[in-house]
Amino acid sequence: MKKEVYKIFKMYCQQYKLNNYKSKKLWSIIRPICYHKEFLKRLQTPFWHHDIKTLGEHIICDAIVTYKIIDKVNKKNKKAINIYLAVIIAMFHDLYEKPWQNNLELPRRKFKNNHGFTHPIEAITNAITWFPNYFIEDKDTLIIIDGVIHHMFPFPVRIIDSGLELNNQEKYEKLDDKYKKIIKLSTNIGKVGIFSIRKSFYIEGRIMSKADKIVAIRKDLKSIDGYISFLTGKNKKLLKKEEKI
Ligand SMILES: [Fe+2]
Ligand SMILES: [Fe+2]
């Protein structure tokens, strides 16, 4: 898979029309994350994210679209947006623990703890655990955590309370207190009951969130089944595909 990942990246650069020079610059940012064994796992079955893409492919596409948008905005604006941090947010935003569609091994959760509401917290927990070097500088850490936590906006994210259930709960508990504090704070601001509904405070996260929607709605979710699965966790179309494999 390590050999394949660069080919997959180049294929999507072509699809999204990112030229050679820019794709090299982007690859130099994302390469260390792409080669990590946990990322490589997410480029294969059973990690299907939407109908036609693996989770890893979806993340790569988000990184490309995020890069393209900021590259364009930065050309027009003097105030430069941090393209590096925005791409890192894209690489971490959906690093959730387990495949979420048609997964019979997943424990039954209360509605409030469904994948849609909790996966940003799982993703940031995994990112801090697997890629600690990206969470050393305080300001960068804040921007990355807030961006990942609120990438689903306007869809709500779960706040941290005693009723929260994650598929990587033990990993969350083991995080350094300073990270748990930032995650709690990030979900507490914009709190409505047990959910938080707000955009990221930082432009890097807001643009990444936009890129996520562009990729998901225009390219990934081509069927009604795909949309419905987002709420139910079951995707009939994916089941048919699995039967063929
Ligand atoms: Fe997501
Ligand atoms: Fe996503």
Low-confidence stretches: none
Mean pLDDT: 90
Gyration radius from CA atoms, angstroms: 17 Å
Note the run of SSEs as H and E.
HHHHHHHEHHEEHHH
N- to C-terminal separation? 19 Å
Keywords:
245 residues, mainly alpha, three-stranded antiparallel β-sheet, 12 helices, 3 strands, 2% strand, globular, binds fe (ii) ion
Describe this structure as you would to a colleague.
The two termini are 19 Å apart. Helices cover 60% and strands 2% of the residues. Strands 1-3-2 form a three-stranded antiparallel beta sheet. It has one domain. The radius of gyration is 17 Å and the shape is globular. It has helices at residues 2-15, 20-34, 37-41, 55-76, 83-92, 115-130, 138-149, 169-174, 177-188, 203-220, 224-232, 236-244, and strands spanning 157-158, 191-192, 195-196. With 245 residues, the protein is mainly alpha-helical. Residues 93-94, 119, 151-152 line the site of one fe (ii) ion (FE2).
